[in-house]
């Protein structure tokens, strides 16, 4: 959890600064920005032609392989203007830092849609550390490993570390990170709200042995309650294995299943990742997809789709830890694997959703990587365009609650109101 939060905080700190940099950031004086451009002119030692080649390579990859360009545009982003603005910025500044800055800034000018993220050194190093562990994965993850352990990228990120250090000093990020570390909250909080209602809040779907024991003990203490409230309103994802094994499996006595539609562009960059994740022989041409509310313009960017079941089996056959009513609190921060959990609950009837519409981008796989050919810097993005049951983009629309919260109440307030009979 701390790792994820530090990575996110780091990314946000970069984004606040970089979003205005080409127009003279209010956060940085012209002198400080010029100093960064001068000090980091030769991070990798690229020519101006190589910087522009890398920039154009990224945009070509996103145009061909990232399925959320249309969603981003409908969210109000003029993607052509974003492309043109940062290409011009690179042209006007003979410095590797100009490319580095532009890559960071694109994350935020594009609203972070579809897991779009530039890897700065601490992010890259965190993934190297993660992939160095024995992860006991069900798929090989070889394309991800190949990208992160590529020799050119490894050298590039080592040489890029002083850039991140200078950003931290320029924007006071070191102080922010230290303060956040001190304020770090537990991932799981539990309470028995009344004799009939138990409550559990989960902030991240990151597997931790201590979470396993905390949740199991809580289910035992909540066994005599009529209502179980699971709060994921602040949960922006992690691992599907978390909710499947720790939240659903103990609370069911027979298998629960749903089917998801995943569409994608089977391009040169996406193919190795898709091949590692799916049996592509089961994929069908996108022209055969028939869902009433699918966005036809989005589908033009895609080549194939696949229907995949998600099944959770009970931890103990014929026996479950809780036999009452289950409620799931949701909101716009619910994203990625927590979004998948929300949709699973709604589609299977495992829980009643209360709150506000979720943030979307569930049912997916780990974001794929685009490694820039000259620099070796990495940008990640979601390759899967997943759809709700009615065909609408899950990234764009998320999952709607069964019981919406009112303007003057929280999701928990709304849930307690429903429990009291005031739907």
β-strand amount? 5-15%
Domain tally: 2
N/C terminus separation: 35 Å
The major sheet is characterized as: 6 strands, mixed
Tell me the series of helices and strands, N- to C-terminal. HHHHHHEHHHHEEHEHEHEHEEHEEEEHEH
**What is the approximate shape?**
globular
In round numbers, the mean pLDDT is 88
What gyration radius follows from the Cα positions, in whole Å? 23 Å
Q: How many strand segments? A: 13
Helix count equals 17
Q: Give the proportion of residues in helices.
A: 40-55%
Q: Any low-confidence stretches, pLDDT <50, length ≥5?
A: 1-26, 176-180
Side by side, the strands of the main sheet go: 2-3-4-8-9-13
Output the structural class: alpha/beta
What would you say about this model in short?
The chain is an alpha/beta fold. It has helices spanning 2-18, 30-39, 48-65, 69-74, 79-92, 96-109, 121-131, 142-148, 151-171, 173-182, 209-222, 240-248, 271-277, 296-299, 337-348, 394-397, 411-419, and strands at residues 117-118, 188-194, 197-202, 227-231, 256-264, 284-285, 304-312, 325-330, 352-355, 368-371, 378-381, 385-387, 403-404.
């Amino acid at each position: 959890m701390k790792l994820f939060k530090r990575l996110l905080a780091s990314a946000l700190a970069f984004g606040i600064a970089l979003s205005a940099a080409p127009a003279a950031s209010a956060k940085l004086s012209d002198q400080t920005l010029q100093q960064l451009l001068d000090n980091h002119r030769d991070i990798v030692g690229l020519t101006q032609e190589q910087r522009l080649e890398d920039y154009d390579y990224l945009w070509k990859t996103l145009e061909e392989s990232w399925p959320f360009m249309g969603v981003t545009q409908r969210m109000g982003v003029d993607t052509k203007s974003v492309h043109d603005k940062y290409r011009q910025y690179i042209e006007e500044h003979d410095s590797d830092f100009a490319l580095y800055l532009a890559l960071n800034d694109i994350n935020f000018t594009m609203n972070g849609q579809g897991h779009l993220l530039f890897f700065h050194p601490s992010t890259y190093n965190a993934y190297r550390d993660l992939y160095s562990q024995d992860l006991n994965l069900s798929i090989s993850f070889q394309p991800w490993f190949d990208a992160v352990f590529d020799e050119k990228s490894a050298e590039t990120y080592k040489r890029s570390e002083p850039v991140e250090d200078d950003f931290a000093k320029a924007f006071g990020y070191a102080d922010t990170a230290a303060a956040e570390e001190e304020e770090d909250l537990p991932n799981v909080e539990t309470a028995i709200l009344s004799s009939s209602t138990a409550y559990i809040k989960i902030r991240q779907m990151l597997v931790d042995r201590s979470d396993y024991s905390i949740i199991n003990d809580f289910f035992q203490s909540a066994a005599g309650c009529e209502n179980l409230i699971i709060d994921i309103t602040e949960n922006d994802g992690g691992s599907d294995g978390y909710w499947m094994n720790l939240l659903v499996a103990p609370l069911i006595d027979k298998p629960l299943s749903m089917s998801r539609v995943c569409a994608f562009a089977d391009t040169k960059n996406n193919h190795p990742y898709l091949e590692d994740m799916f049996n592509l022989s089961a994929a069908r041409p996108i022209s055969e997809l028939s869902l009433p509310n699918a966005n036809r313009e989005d589908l033009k960017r895609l080549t194939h789709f696949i229907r995949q079941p998600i099944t959770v089996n009970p931890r103990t056959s014929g026996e479950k830890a809780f036999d009452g009513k289950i409620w799931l609190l949701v909101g716009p921060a619910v994203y990625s694997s927590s979004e998948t959990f929300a949709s699973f609950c709604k589609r299977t009837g495992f829980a009643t959703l209360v709150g506000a519409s979720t943030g979307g981008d569930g049912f997916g796989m780990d974001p794929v990587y685009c490694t820039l050919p000259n620099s070796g810097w990495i940008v990640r993005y979601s390759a899967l365009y997943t759809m709700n049951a009615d065909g609408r983009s899950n990234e764009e629309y998320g999952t709607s609650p069964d019981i919406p919260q009112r303007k003057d109440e929280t999701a928990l307030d709304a849930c307690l109101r429903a429990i009291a009979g005031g739907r």
